[in-house]
User: Which sequence fits this backbone?
């Protein structure tokens, strides 16, 4: 059963059904683990936030990343994280990851808390630093609503969950939104249907337009 990281899942649900099918086909094919472009950002963010490493020292480490695009993206993301953190103070806490499994056992989604804010029962924040596709608030809240259920039996569990986009320094906090549980379940139903189509070799219509979240 394939497991999507939370950022990969957000990217998947932003695609058109046809492109979702292509991505799912790739996931179901036996292959070596792919390269995680954003792993360095997460590791250096943890050093900066939780280990007390100075930003200058973290950026010096980033400068040794071999791939230029990854080096540039990581440095920009950390600089934006530093700005956001300086404007959003508060004690930090670490939350364990949570895993959501789809009802028909087609896939799992792993939410990793990159930043944990201790105030008001705690908030688990996942960092997003992908340039494309752009984030859609409804898709984010639908995905967060799924992960909120996955945290119910985990201790400690956060009172709130959020996605911090380092592209625009915007925080998408689930408790600030309406109830997206139903939309989240419909997103999963749609994806499980595509998983089954892939297994049975069903061809999807040639339409590369993503499904609007309002249609779920």
Assistant:
């Amino acid at each position: 059963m394939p497991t999507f990281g939370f950022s990969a899942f957000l990217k998947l649900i932003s695609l058109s059904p046809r492109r979702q099918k292509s991505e799912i086909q790739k996931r179901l094919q036996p292959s070596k683990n792919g390269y995680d472009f954003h792993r360095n950002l997460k590791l250096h963010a943890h050093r900066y936030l939780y280990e007390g490493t100075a930003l200058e020292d973290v950026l010096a480490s980033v400068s040794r990343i071999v791939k230029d695009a990854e080096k540039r993206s990581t440095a920009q993301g950390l600089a934006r994280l530093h700005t956001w953190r300086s404007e959003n103070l508060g004690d930090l806490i670490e939350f364990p990851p949570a895993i959501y499994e789809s009802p028909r056992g087609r896939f799992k989604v792993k939410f990793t808390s990159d930043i944990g804010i201790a105030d008001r029962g705690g908030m688990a924040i996942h960092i997003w630093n992908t340039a494309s596709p752009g984030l859609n608030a409804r898709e984010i809240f639908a995905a967060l609503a799924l992960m909120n259920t996955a945290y119910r039996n985990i201790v400690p569990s956060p009172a709130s969950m959020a996605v911090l986009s380092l592209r625009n320094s915007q925080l998408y906090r689930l408790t600030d939104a309406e109830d997206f549980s139903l939309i989240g379940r419909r997103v999963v139903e749609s994806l499980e249907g595509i998983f089954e189509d892939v297994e049975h070799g069903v061809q999807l219509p040639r339409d590369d337009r993503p499904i609007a979240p309002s249609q779920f």
Remarks:
- The helical segments are 6-13, 17-28, 39-50, 55-62, 68-87, 137-150, 181-200.
- DSSP finds seven helices and seven strands in the chain.
- Confidence is low (pLDDT under 50) at residues 208-214.
- The CA atoms of residues 142 and 160 lie 14 Å apart.
